[in-house]
Amino acid sequence: MVLTRLGTGLITLVAVTLFGAGACAFDPQSDQSGAAGGLTPVGAAEDATGASAPPAPDQEETTPTPQTTPSKSAPTTKTPTTKTPTKKPTRSSSPKPPAGCPQGERQREVEGYLARLGGFGPVTVDGRQSAADCAAIKKFQRRYDIRPAEGRAGPTTADVARRLARTDTGKCKTGSGTTFCVDLTLQTVWAMRGKTVVMAPTVTRTGMSGYATPAGTYSINFRNTKEWSDPYEVWLPYWQRFVGGIGFHETTTYLHNKGIGSHGCVNLLPSDARKMWQLGKVGTRVHVMGRRPGT
């Protein structure tokens, strides 16, 4: 906080909130959106129904009959031909989403990823919102702090689900003990003990352009449950440093706002920061791979 005195008593108060330690803080000039929420909606159009005008009535096919000479004593009678009216086909309408659970433009995509991930409840991969689909999407959104958690399959939900579903835990170079794994390309983090996953992949936000989190193999060299950042004057909960001024810590902003980023640190959701604190110690191996898109 900087207090500048101008003239006779004119005071301008400028408050700047930053996060991170060493190289860890977001650039306030990089967030031009003015609102949290992550990715810009894609706005994909729904598929056309392919319905056309009702077909014309069927043309009746006549079969020729042999001609006979009518009897003089018996007049001939002509049986009128009747046509059975053709029933016009009706278009089947898609079931409406359950009340209070809107359908998003990425419905089928999210259903597919949640079915692949598992653990969030039954989903039907058909692109149609149901009560079961809604409950699973809401559970997923609450787990990863996607706001609002209303069950709508929007672009942020689809992006998070895609990154998690595509994370390959086997890519991490592990040691005999615990290893913290960071995939910068997918922006995901998980923990291994030997070849066993002890913390499933979760989402992160790493260094922004100009402050890319460096790939490599490191180890935790300092920890503090609540570290004070001197350059940025902010508390960093569950701080675990692994190279220079870069470390893991709980995020102080909305994690899914990609318009901002750290100055190198690995930002975590509160529950994930606590879990990694419990798993880690000084000496814990850290393997960072890939590169964050745009850096």
Automatic annotation (TrEMBL):
Residues 178-289 form the L,D-TPase catalytic domain. Residues 1-25 form the signal peptide. InterPro entries: LD-transpeptidase, LD_TPept_cat_dom, Peptidoglycan-bd-like, PGBD-like_sf, Transpep_catalytic_dom. Residues 35-107 are annotated as: Disordered. This is L,D-TPase catalytic domain-containing protein. Keywords: Cell shape, Cell wall biogenesis/degradation, Peptidoglycan synthesis, Signal, Transferase. Residues 62-84 have a biased composition (Low complexity). It comes from the Bacteria. The active site is at H249 (proton donor/acceptor), C265 (nucleophile). Pathway: Cell wall biogenesis; peptidoglycan biosynthesis.
